[in-house]
Amino acid sequence: MTVILNQSFTGISIGAVLLLIALGLTLTFGQMGVINMAHGEFIMAGAYTTYVLQKDISGAGVSLLIALPLAFLVAGSLGALLEWLLIRRLYTRPLDTLLVTWGVSLMLQQLARDIFGAPNVQTHAPDLLTGNISVGGITLANNRLFILGLALLCVLGVTLILRLTPLGRRIRAVVQNRDLAEVSGIATGRVDRMTFFIGSGLAGVAGVALTLVGPIGPTMGTNYIVDAFLVVVVGGIAQLKGSVITAFALGVLQSVLEYSTTVSVAKVIVLVAIVAFLQWRPQGLYTLRTRSLA
Amino acid sequence: MTTTLTPTKTTPTAGPTPSLLERLRVPGAFLLGAVLLMGVAPLALSDFRLDLLAKYLCYAIVAVGVSLAWGRGGLLVLGQGVFFGLGGYAMAMHLKLADAAATGQTLPDFMQLYGTGDTLPWWWQPFANPAFALAMTVLLPMAVAALLGFFVFRRRVKGAYFAILSQALAAALAIWLVGQQATTGGTNGLTDIQGFFGYDLGDPVNQRTVYFIIAAALLLLMAAARQLFVSRYGELLVAVRDSEERVRFFGYDPANVKLVAYVVAAGMAGLAGALFVPAVGIISPALIGIVPSIGFVIGAAVGGRASLVGAVLGAIAVAWAQSTLSDAFPAAWTYLQGLLFVLAVGFLPGGLASLVTVLRRRRTPTTQTGGTA
Amino acid sequence: MSGEGLTVRDLRVTFDGFKAVDGVDLDIRSGDLRFLIGPNGAGKTTLVDAVTGLVRSAGSVRFGGEELIGKPVHRIARMGIGRTFQTATVFEELTVLQNLDIAAGAGRGPLTMLRRRKGIPEQVTKALETTGLTDLRDRPAGVLAHGQKQWLEIGMLLVQNVRLLLLDEPVAGMSHDEREATGELLRRVSEDHTVVVIEHDMDFMRSFARSVTVLHAGKVLSEGSVAEVQADARVQEVYLGRASEPESARESEPAAASVPVAEEA
User: Fold this and answer.
1) CATH class for the domain made up of C6-88+159-251
2) Nearest CB to B338: which of A89, A98, A107?
3) d(Cα B88, Cα C232) in Å, to the nearest integer?
4) pTM of the predicted model, to two decimals?
5) Å from B369 to nearest chain C CA?
6) What pLDDT shows up at residue B370?
7) Domain segments of chain C: what residues?
8) Closest chain C residue to B4 measured between Cα atoms?
9) Which of A174, B98, C19, C100 fits a 20 to 30 Å CA distance from A156?
10) Domain locations in chain B?
């Protein structure tokens, strides 16, 4: 029983990491239809931001707290820059965007190698986050709990922005009918850039979280990016809750399978499960209903 | 879709009778390619360079399939590494078994090293048969593509979703191979292959023969793909790419149309993988994961995805640039590669082939696309 | 060949609780040239979507005695039902000839498909003549004028050997001359096909309709000849009352009639 609970908690914490990464994608891919392969490198940017901060500020706790907003800004600005330079010219060609941003991701990885060196680096976690707490025989790692909390906080934040702020209303308007939004006086270009800023910024936050559970390296983003895209595909592009449910479901599935088979077999089974799921819901869990031809 | 993707010649029967020069253009170009590949290159290049060219030609074979599935069918096949790998592993498994048998062993060298016991895993056993192994190099990739394609296209999962799924497949296969160290060689892959159906691959003469086989396969597959391009199926494939729903209303099932292109492309990638093994002597997870899978697409994108010759030349050029520059200037090459992606795909979606078309149009202004275009 | 009749019984289409089509009965005799009219949101396009299998629906749609509901889109198409869309959808990168050839070819076997096209199939030649596109056959369809694209679409239905044509606003955005030509084309086509036209243009309807069905809020409001429908008080109330406004005022509405929950993407 304890094994199952422990394993489920591992799954939920894997899910929390997936969710943090996928959250930014639900904005850029889900809302805007842009497949940004450089999203993984924005994660990396967030992680290196933490690393640099910790070299300058000794306190691990303080630097982590500063890193969160700063990584959001760094990665968000990179994202907005990418949108302005390239992506806005490619909105009608989503598949080409994928390849173009893959090229950008290659360059960003090399940039990281040139600045920080090819080997992985480490940060120190604050003392508060290194221990465990035990609840009813289950061991919960503090850093995992922190990531879970951070992920849920980010979901809440994005939901509030989309629901309550004027920017959120504009984003939703542009998603639902770009032309109409434009003729209604919404500067769709600015909205796109803001959406991209927030989505990429969230990748930066995810990067900060990842420094707590693994090494920081130039290619760290590629390890997560495909899984994160799968989360959005399965969750459906219409609503955040699709991604939330999917991230946790995939995390738990993955960890349960890893426990009963091996990591590599688990990956294959998860993919088969996803294809099977898409037989039932080809557009993902939650979809926008449209009556268009395409 | 951009207008530059239009094939330059699409009116073979209905238009005004083409001149002799026009009619000889395609067979002429084919002949020229054959002479270059089968005659000039083997004479002009050293053994070492010819080996490299053999490797590039394998990538070019993959690009033929990419041009069909992506250029014509609009299917962004981001997981061609899977099929390349399946073909490669099928071939390498047989060659490893043959190598072992030649030295009186029952197990390939790496299996003895990692110690899986004395018996060959059951799924290795049929690959001792050369005919079975050869058939599998093509049939296995086609079967996997058919399976995935059937389920994916049937439910109208398309565009980015399809691209991401096919990419995930590449990642999954690479991870699985790495995980099965004892039976697949893990990260190292299957290496150090000595013989090719009884011939010693260490002998330069035999290496040359492998080159000729690869070059012949490329020419043959290009001819086959060209036939598909100009056939009614080729026209239908373009129609499906441009408006799948519309085609459905004519009573076609677009899922089948796409499935054919995807499966054929997979078979070509499998064959390329199988030929890659004797040419290079290795197949490993690093050659088939996400990164190389995107690499297969980028060559075609640079050269011109919708143009067969463009895709093939692009694949060869990118592979050449990679191996020439990546050793000398690894950092500079990565930047250049990234920039190439951005420029070619972002700003020249028809690839370098579209430049040729533009130039030709400028030289001889045709009436065909004039008027309100 | 004189087309075949379409029988619709108690057809219902619901979008998230909104009844877009709400119990429609419809009998279209073979050889009819029927106009479907009604204000925006009346369910005209959704009705056609349901008949062609594009949206899920309940009730019964029978064509030539066979039930259509539940069949996939391409099967319905193969039974001889063809349709066009509000926006002309031709394959822009293929030539007029290639467009027609593809439309004609759903029954072709794999061997024919793998061969290059030799010559022009007879029904394609005929369709080129009927639609007046013979001279333009080698043009990429993308460069055709708006009206020509619509004619090409109709031609594509003809070579498909359909017996029932469902046309969604075929003259929207056309010039006066193009409208006349389209009307004449529809008249010719309806000699040996059953034709159903969704239309907003009242003048066009008056000139060419053989019979008219008025839809309102997902239900059939009135049915009959042009004169009968125009005389119907309920129709005048909900629809033709507005038709006495200047023609241009109505046309400035967005052409895409939309069901409130659905949106055009």
Assistant:
1) alpha beta
2) A107
3) 75
4) 0.83
5) 7
6) 35
7) 6-88+159-251
8) C93
9) A174
10) 42-288
